[in-house]
Amino acid sequence: MVVTRAINQLTPGCSLLTEIDKNAQDTVLKRLELNIARNSYSHRKGLSLPLINSTVKFVPVVDSPMPLSSIDDSDKILIPQKEFTCFYGQNEKGETIYFYAIYNDRSNFTKDTNPRMYKMNVEMFGQQYADKEVEKLRSAKGIDRWEIIVASPQDGIGYKKFEYAREHSDDGSFFILTKGKTYPHVCFFVDNKPYYCCEMQQHELGMRPL
User: Fold this and answer.
1) What is the pTM of this model?
2) CA gap 128, 141 in Å, rounded
3) Tell me: the pLDDT tens digits for 159-172?
4) Phi, psi at 95, each rounded to 5°
5) Residue 108 pLDDT more than 90?
């Protein structure tokens, strides 16, 4: 019932479905440029980068923390994802390319935004230790881990899920649902109800209610 209540709160235009702020977008795109400069995508045959800036669009990402069994409040089952983002754009060939960017940013860590971790440290090691851990994490300025995953027209099923979502959604938009920064589902609204794209029999794509 708690999960159902949370899903019912997921509607077009709701507060959960917001893009990351402009500063975060710029940071992600600068990192992508750095990766391209290091030839990290050169092994992908036929992939033309960079993207045309005017075509780049960031997609809302919602997270479901793990494990769900410890959550009894529907407001905490779905939360904005701050360390996993999705965006797409067109290259000079006119191809649409999709990206996931996964990173760690602990500079905004507080005991209030991460109450379970703080409580666990207090119970195991005491409050003084827990407070020092918070300050230690906050002092690590900037982003300390990066992983950028690309889905191009040459990539098969992963790419097709994005295209399927845009084709079948009410307005051509989509959003991502993660579970602790893993297992991203490409989701979209049909008749204002949330669905996710999935692989059906014989590797065909379809959709199921979220």
Assistant:
1) 0.78
2) 22
3) 999 999 999 999 99
4) -80, 140
5) no
